[in-house]
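Q: Structure tokens for this one, please.
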Amino acid sequence: MPDVEEVLLEIDERMDRSVEALVRDLNTIRTGRASPSLVDTLMVDYYGAPTPLNQISSISVPEARLLMIQPWDKQSITNIEKSILTSDLGLMPNSDGTVIRLSIPPLTEERRRDLVRLVGRRVEEGNVAVRNIRRDGMETLRSMEKGKEISRDEMHRSQDDLQQITDSHIEKMQALAKQKEAEVMEV
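A: Here is the predicted structure, written as tokens:
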């Protein structure tokens, strides 16, 4: 059976993965600038299998407000266009048969506010994930105490440690939210 340190370390690693997932998630929210991460993980129907866009094409930023997608297989252009149109990016693909250009229009004030709300929702989902991991950790610690593997004092100390780990990860997520909100609201 694992000891308290191993349990806390595993919980810390799981919470780190939640923060990393939030970072990836926030990178897909568009700001006024073009960034390959906007479309990196967009799923495209590629010969019947959903495939991330970055695995079937190269994505570049030739200008500040322009994304260029160059598929390695020219037959996949129509499928890439379809996945861009059905995504929630709100972008119109412009294709010349070999490359797809995505012009990133400047954001309106209303759209910026919507994106800030979206950032808030994604961060809250991340916070819920971290709290769920904390709950799992608490259950593990309680079962260790019931099984007489740890004392009551050790249980209370480890609960305090667990809460500190949780608080630090939630603080990281809040900092990411502030940074992304500032980026979205920047004109």
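A few notes: The helical segments are 4-27, 77-86, 109-146, 152-185. The beta strands are 43-46, 49-52, 57-63, 66-71, 93-95, 100-103.
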